[in-house]
Amino acid sequence: MTLDVGCPVVMSTHDGDKEKIRAATQAGVSAYVVGNIPTERLSPVIDAAIARFEEFNNLREELAVTKLKLEEHKVVEQAKGLLMKQRNLDEEEAYSLLRSMAMKKNMRLTDLSQQLIDAAKMLIL
After folding, report:
1. How many CA atoms lie within 13 A of 104 on its CB side?
2. What is the pLDDT of residue 107?
3. Dihedral (C-alpha) 21, 46, 6, 1: value to the nearest 10 degrees?
4. Residue 21: which of 3, 34, 8 has the closest Cα?
5. Both 15 and 57 in a single domain?
6. What's residue 50's pLDDT?
7. Residues 76 and 57 in one domain
8. Residue 89: domain span
9. Which ranges in 1-125 belong to alpha helices (H)?
10. Cα 32 from Cα 19, distance rounded (Å)
């Protein structure tokens, strides 16, 4: 179970069981404090939870961007492969052709590549 939260979560408990701590942090708890939190320690604990939450959010965003770029790269590579096979081009020629077609049509390279793949699939059926 994971928490779908838009803010840091501080959990205070008297249970220091390692498995429960692991489960809580995997569920999205930013700070897990065992025992009482004296008033003077509360602010630093909250600050640490906020910092950890922001760091994980940044990592999640970076991972999402990286996955998207990888998927886009795969689409371009697949389209290059189709052009290489269909037109007997080398990799550089296929990429140049894709780029020039995308510029002429004022399209993103990935979008044009996906259209090329979709068209090829329709022709094969």
Report:
1. 6
2. 97
3. 10
4. 34
5. yes
6. 94
7. no
8. 68-124
9. 18-26, 39-87, 91-105, 109-124
10. 12
Torsion of CA 84, 87, 92, 95, to 10 degrees: -80
pLDDT means over runs of 10, the chain (125 residues): 70 88 89 88 92 92 97 98 95 97 97 96 83
pLDDT at 5: 56
The pLDDT, as a whole number, for residue 4 is 57
Query: Are 20 and 43 contained in the same domain?
Result: yes
Closest CA to 5 of 60, 64, 42: 60
Crossing angle between the packed helical segments 91-105 and 109-124, to the nearest 10 degrees: 110
Which residue, 120, 85, 83, is CA-closest to 101?
83
Q: Could you give the CA distance from residue 69 to residue 104 in angstroms, rounded to a whole number?
A: 23
The pLDDT of residue 1 is 52
